[in-house]
Amino acid sequence: MRRLALALALSALPAAAQAETAIFAGGCFWCVEADFESLKGVEEVVSGYTGGTTENPGYKEVTRGGTGHYEAARIEYDPDIVSYDELLWAFFRSVDPTDAGGQFCDRGESYRTAIFVADAAEREAAELAKTRAEAELGRRIVTPILPAQTFWKAEARHQDYYKGRDLVLTRFGPRRQSAAYELYREACGRDARARALWGKDAVFARKK
Asked: If DSSP states are collapsed to H, E and C, what string results for 34-82?
């Protein structure tokens, strides 16, 4: 009887929300991954490639250009905790959406910004978020809103790079991945540019 009562009690609880997915391209996917994994309600962020025509693309191939792919991040989130609208708000304020040639120090087609939408509801939300961000910024936003395509997961070495412990060679000498990431982010000017554009709304920008 106790088991039956427990089963009935559990069945009466509201079902947990299924994780949903957002796909954004915001320049270096290490940074997009690090930023969005800090948000409450985000369960996982995967670095990868999407938007192009080449199958099973690799990092060197994508960054060299010609594949049409963007460096992108697939964000899995709990919609009961954080909404798609909130993710869109944070995305625009973490990038320079006025730059059509790349992001910050990273130049080229693979580093452009984009939002990839799965259906009409996501497109409507993204268009509205873009319009509001453009009005707030007072400048034309060039970030396209594109239909979602196959998302190709990036190589293992790119996943969670910002907290990795492997030793890598940088222009500053050998560093652990996590330290190399921080040096790269600072040198690339990501946070400084986000603060210059968005001020206090630059949600992920490191404080000076």
From this structure: HHHCCCCCEEEEEEEEECCCCCCCCHHHHHHCCCCCEEEEEEEECCCCC
Q: What's the predicted TM-score (pTM) here? A: 0.90
Q: What is the pLDDT of residues 34-49, one digit of tens each?
A: 999 999 999 999 999 9
Q: How far apart are CA 153 and CA 33, in angstroms?
A: 13
pLDDT category at 193 given cuts 50, 70, 90 is very high
Domain annotation covers residue 50:
yes
Q: Which residues contact residue 127 at a Cβ distance below 8 angstroms, ignoring those fewer than 6 apart?
A: 145
In three-state secondary structure terms, 33 is: helix
Domain count across the chain: 1
Tell me which of 28, 31, 105, 188 is the catalytic residue. Answer: 28
31 located within any domain: yes
> Which residues constitute the domain of residue 45?
18-158
Q: Please check the confidence at residue 65 and state whether its pLDDT lies above 90.
A: yes
Residue 86 lies in a domain: yes
The domain that holds 152 is classified in CATH as 3.30.1060.10
28 is catalytic: yes
